[in-house]
Amino acid sequence: MVSAPVSTSKAARTRATIRETALASFRSRGYDDTTLRLIAEEAHVSLGSTYNYFPTKHHLVQELYAEVASEFHARAVARLDGVDDLVERLRIVYLAGLDTLQPFHRFAPGFLSAAVAPRSPINPLLSTDAGEARDATVDAFRLAVDGARHSLPRELVEMLPDALMLAYLLLALFWVYDASPGQRRTRQLIDRGLGLLKLGLPLLRVPGVRKPLRELMRLVAEIRA
């Protein structure tokens, strides 16, 4: 087995150290109080090296997005095992998302203010760099739908995960402003929304309802694109 060049190995370790230091700072300090200079100091590397691996703080936020999305995906998959009811599987995924976000709640406004602009490089919906996090989120919902017992039309099943991901982002926006204990109102919103979905699911097999819903799903796909 051929060992990797020492320089490459050292570079990988340095990058990993900077990344882990930044993610720890985001978790403990939030967006506003985390700076590249602070990260460099705590990682015991030069500021120049930090810029070399991560030119801006935005690049490190994308690393955070990817890690949080991966945690969300793993948590949702673990909880889905043995559950086949579609609405209950969706409830599991949405709650897994909230549970993963919960440690960031006190810092969420800072991340939101930096991300909300349409051209923001850390906009979770529109930034091209956030694709990995979006894909992981969509896949969690896809697994929830594909593993459920239902009789939904195939064309809707294929488009549903994107719509559920968009609903999740809107839910997260509500969660940011939810000051109730443990963000109870957000969890109640999930219950009420999924309750309405359960009542409406049988209607999706009606041709007159299916067509406008299909067009709505296409609009959602265009928003994501």
What does this structure look like?
It is a single chain. Helices cover 72% and strands 0% of the residues. It is an all-alpha fold and 225 residues long. It has two domains: 1-55, Arc Repressor Mutant, subunit A (Orthogonal Bundle), CATH 1.10.10.60; 58-224, Tetracycline Repressor, domain 2. Helix 4 runs antiparallel to helix 5 (86-101). The longest helix has 24 residues, at 6-29. The relative contact order is 0.10. The model is unreliable at 1-6 (pLDDT under 50).
How would you name the oligomeric state of the polypeptide chains in this document? single chain
Strand content: under 5%
The biggest sheet amounts to: none
Net shape: elongated
Entry summary:
The chain has helices at 6-29, 36-43, 47-53, 57-80, 86-101, 108-115, 131-146, 154-177, 184-200, 207-224. The chain is mainly α and 225 residues long. It folds into 2 domains: 1-55, Homeodomain-like (Arc Repressor Mutant, subunit A), CATH 1.10.10.60; 58-224, Orthogonal Bundle (Tetracycline Repressor, domain 2).
Describe how the helices and strands are arranged:
Elements: H1 6-29, H2 36-43, H3 47-53, H4 57-80, H5 86-101, H6 108-115, H7 131-146, H8 154-177, H9 184-200, H10 207-224
Helix pairs in contact: 1-2, 1-4, 2-3, 4-5, 4-7, 5-7, 5-9, 7-8, 8-10
